[in-house]
Amino acid sequence: MSGKNLSKGKKNKKEINKGWNLSKIQNPQEKRKRKSKRFFRLLGTKLVLRKRNKEDLTIDKVHRFRTSAMEIEEKRTEVHLGKVWVKDGQIYCKESSAHFPTITVSEGMHLYKNGKLVKKTTVLSEKDQIRVDFPNERKEASWSIQLHPSKMEAILNVEMGYQKVHQLKDQEPSAHLDLQIETKLKMINPLQATHLEQRMKELGINTGIQPQEIQRALNATESGQFIIAKGLEPIQGKDGWVEWASEFFDSSHLRSKEENGIQPLTSQNFVQSGQLIGTIHPPVPGKAGYSVTGESIPANSTKAIQLQLGKGTDLLEKGSKIVALLPGRVSIQQSEEKLAVCVIPRYYQSGHLYNRAGQIQFYGDVEIKGDVDEKAVVEAMHDIVVHGMVNESKITAGNHIIVCKNVLNGRLSAGKEFTSVMELGMILSQVSSQLHDLASAVVQVFQSPLFKKSDMGKMGIRSLIRLLLQKKFQQLPSLIKKLEKWIVMNEHRHMVEPELKEIHSELVDAFFNLESSPLKDVADIESIKDRMEKIRVYYSFSESNNAKIIIPYALNSEIICSGDVSIIGKGSLDTKIFSEGRVEIKGVLCGGNVYAAKGVVVEETWIRGKEKTKISVPLGQSIKINHAQGGTIIQIGSQMYRLENEKKNVHAVLSKEGTFQFL
């Protein structure tokens, strides 16, 4: 604050005269005062009424105003005597003969009286020269433009500056004042439209500019970030896909837990011959986007679905429709690269199966509506579903085994005994590859002008195949013999699909009896290859790594599975369980041995008499028991531990030192 003369509070005659002039009455209204006749008669005096002129009234009013203004000023002077006050940021005082006002300086200001700095309290008089200075507090403003690494956004960062404006706070007259500071904050926006535009040009920002956001930044009173340009994200394309006609994924054994068993739900993945399985959609290309600097951003590349058709399927309508060729269960396997579809035939047993009814051996699925009893045997290359119980019988499947009621003195095996299917898959894959290369070689030779002019060209495809088998494809005949050996070894187990035998017979006729070979052109080789590929896909669905066993209760039985085992009912009693996956028992485990390569979870363990209840897992796996009875034996790797007392929430692992840890 610059220096100021202390105001002395004297009368201002000029102001008073101004007030008088403004208050003159130009047109006063006449007033008449009348006395009642009775009053004058009582006084005995004759009243003489005289009319006052306009000039007399004006003089009278001016006189009254002068008197009033002088009285107000005198009263104000009396109130301010010996006091100090602050008005409009300036200090005023009025001394008296008996008292001088005082002020105290507050922190944050510098007060000078008559050129000298006052640090605490001082006395004021009307003659003092007072100056108050305040510190200059100012923060510089700044701004910058940040370009996202992807160049999809340009962000304007604005850091507001400010200046603090100080002045004395107004205070009423008092004998002593503690001076107070009143601060106002003045915000400083550093942005200028021309400078902003220039910087955007320097950065190459020319696309997706947001005018409203720029205007908001120019008008801002607070620091912040503003997205002043936005790129356009590319619209991603979509790979080819299959629109399924129904819920065909491997959920054919949807189930709900009941008190004494499993209730299989109606499956939607059974089809009849000629039924539509799915519609193949081509890939949908994407649309390119652009950055804020105008660069094009390409959409992702798309690809058509790589479909492998297995047995029981075909393509119609120019390869856009997948249709079933036979009744059965639709099975689908999908990986990142390929999608395989096949129809697995089903053998349906409407009632109970007893030993006297013979065995069931089938290369597809088997479904038995009743019980399996009296030492019956059921074998299937894929899934087996038993709606009733299994008693003193043997069930063997390549994939899943589902038993809806109890398993008593039975033997269940899933996947473990069908490892030879993997060997078949390798043989078929190698034969298919050889046929593909052979067909390509034949086409290449046929297109050669030298071959057409030669004597061999006149002999036809059989002579060429004989030569290629001798020179380049010596492995093909040995692979065909290997396939024949596999068929002979597994035919008694009903693992050989009839079409596989037909294809093998065609291979023998085509490549071992060349004189009478049915091959007439390359298309015949391609046809055999395509049929073989379908069979290979079909058998791949029964590989043992997909196996699973689900039952409600087991008593004195044996359960072997290359995948997971789930006992979801009352539990397991005196049963041996071997799993290369995970074992989960939601009920009670009492007696018997349980081994699981990927861990065990048990709700409760019991000990009955001298029977042992033992759970084993390999090193690196864990054992979980919600409620373990004393005497339960657990083993991890080669280390064994016996729970001496009842224990809840057991979660056992083996430490690096080889000791048991309970988490």
Describe the structure.
- The protein is α/β, with parallel strands linked by helices and 663 residues long.
- The protein has four domains: 3-99, no CATH class; 245-274 and 301-344, RNA polymerase II/Efflux pump adaptor protein, barrel-sandwich hybrid domain (OB fold (Dihydrolipoamide Acetyltransferase, E2P)); 346-418 and 544-662, no CATH class; 425-540.
- The protein has twelve helices and 51 strands.
- The strands form eleven sheets. Strands 29, 31, 33, 34, 36, 37, 39, 41, 43, 45, 47, 50 and 51 form a 13-stranded mixed sheet that branches. Strands 30-32-35-38-40-42-44-46-48-49 form a ten-stranded mixed sheet, with no helix packed on it.
- Helix 10 (475-490) runs antiparallel to helix 11 (498-511) and helix 11 (498-511) packs antiparallel against helix 12 (522-540).
- The longest helix has 27 residues, at 54-80.
- Residues 1-5, 7-16, 22-50 and 250-257 have low confidence and may be disordered.
- Pfam families: FapA, FapA_N.
- It comes from Neobacillus thermocopriae.
- Residues 169-334 form the Flagellar Assembly Protein A N-terminal region domain.
- This is DUF342 domain-containing protein.
- Residues 1-36 are annotated as: Disordered.
